[in-house]
Amino acid sequence: MKWLSIVDEHTHEFLALNCARSITSDDAVDSLAELFAMPDVPKRIRSDNRLEFTAKAIQRWLMQMEVGVLYIEPGSPSQNCYAEGFHSRLHDEFLTIEEFGIVA
User: Fold this and answer.
1) Secondary structure letter of residue 12 according to DSSP
2) Any bridge partners for residue 4, and if so which?
């Protein structure tokens, strides 16, 4: 399973969570577009270097939206500490407690 989580670094507010077997750059654009429909579009976003975030499609879309991207260095999760903290809490408070049935 892949997770796309969006966390506001300023307020530490969890904004979106997308879970799927695979997440494409189009899925990432769709998730961001929903958030960018709100009045305060960020000037920059911080992202890891996974393919769905480095794809030309999302780079073009972000450029059209006049949003810069700060990519974290590979192997440096401390540069994305708010998202990493959210993932840790999600794992500890939800994923290790809940039981999920298998859908055929």
Assistant:
1) -
2) 18
pTM score, two decimals? 0.69
The full set of domains in the chain, from first to last, is: 2-95 (3.30.420.10)
CA dist 18 and 90 (Å) reads 13
Per-residue pLDDT tens for 41-75? 888 888 877 777 778 888 899 999 999 988 877 76
